[in-house]
Design brief:
40% of the residues lie in helices and 7% in strands. The strands form two sheets. A four-stranded mixed sheet has the order 1-2-3-4. Strands 5-6 form a two-stranded antiparallel ribbon. Helix 1 crosses helix 4, helix 4 packs across helix 7 and helix 5 runs antiparallel to helix 6. It is globular and about 60 Å long.
């Protein structure tokens, strides 16, 4: 925990020294948002108003497999996955902090900039009643076709919105998670109050919202694949959730697998091995990180034909802590 405090302190000092300039959001759908080779620092203003609250470590399983999910037994249990991967626990804590920054600043903050720009354009075009966060996803799809030349970026934003039919709550929550640059309000097994009532299971958890945003972003970075005509190359090939089940006979498996919806729980499938991670608030982040460690070490930073390192998507920068 001390090392994580030191890391965050040095990160803040570095930002203050460099005084990183804020990248303007693009109301006209600039391709810069969807471009390759952008790191978290490329997108970040100095936002010292908000502070990242260090999560307490998720409790480790006392037994390797006795209390594991019987439907999806793990080859490597939560208390041995990181040691098997050769990553010290303190380093994992630092990487979680770095990943939270990357997700917030590279995806969520820029996504909200696009949404606000599109809504502004719709008002300018005389359609104030057609706002993202107030209009159904079906209506937005129709708008993206009828007004494609005037709002080309809407088609790029739509995949991020199809995770929930409650568009008002979804956009509200995306806006809240985008504030501050570190998702300090993240609630892994819940979400935010909505219209005066507490979060309930009819609304998506923050894990579902953030994981869907990551999959949508990665879909936009990977080249089209004929096997996935809907454009969800990453979401279909490298992510799966129950009740779907992975084929563990396949030796080329590489995916993040959501084995439980409420409360959410994620594992990583590599070949015919299932890697479990500690339950709780950091489980999703750990699953993403283990997935990335495998790509960096075993795949030389390549996800298919796309480089996830500095010369490509640059998500592997979260491991450089």
């Amino acid at each position: 925990m001390t090392s994580l405090n030191s890391y965050l302190k040095s990160y803040e000092e570095k930002e203050q020294r460099n005084q990183l300039a804020s990248t303007d959001s693009s109301p006209t759908g600039s391709p810069s948002y969807w471009a390759y080779n952008r790191s978290a620092s490329d997108f970040t203003p100095v936002l010292r108003k908000y502070q990242y609250q260090i999560a307490s470590r998720s409790p480790q399983s006392q037994s390797s497999r006795n209390d594991d999910d019987p439907d999806y037994p793990a080859t490597f249990a939560a208390n041995e996955s990181w040691s098997k991967m050769g990553v010290p626990r303190d380093e994992v804590e630092n990487e979680i902090a770095s990943l939270r920054k990357w997700l917030s600043q590279t995806i969520l903050r820029r996504l909200m900039g696009e949404i606000e720009g599109i809504n502004k354009t719709l008002r300018r075009l005389g359609s104030p009643e057609l706002q993202i966060g107030e209009t159904s996803i079906t209506s937005l799809r129709q708008i993206s076709i009828s007004k494609q030349q005037m709002i080309p970026s809407l088609q790029k934003v739509l995949p991020y919105l199809d995770v929930s039919s409650n568009q008002e709550y979804l956009v509200q929550r995306l806006r809240e998670l985008a504030k501050g640059g570190v998702m300090s309000d993240f609630r892994w097994n819940g979400g935010a109050d909505y219209k005066g009532r507490k979060w309930d299971q009819d609304l998506p958890t923050d894990c579902v919202v953030v994981m869907h945003a990551l999959c949508s972003y990665m879909d936009s970075q990977l080249p089209p694949h004929p096997k996935y005509p809907d454009g969800k190359t990453f979401g279909s090939q490298y992510f799966m959730k129950t009740p779907d089940k992975p084929d563990l006979k396949k030796k080329d498996n590489l995916l993040i697998f959501q084995t439980k919806i409420n409360p959410p729980h994620y594992k990583v499938i590599i070949g015919d091995d299932t890697w479990d991670l500690a339950k709780g608030r950091s489980n999703m982040f750990q699953a993403i990180l283990l997935f990335l460690h495998h790509i960096k070490v075993k795949e030389l930073g390549m996800l298919g034909r796309v480089n996830l390192d500095a010369s490509g998507v640059n998500i592997l920068c979260v491991l450089d802590v």
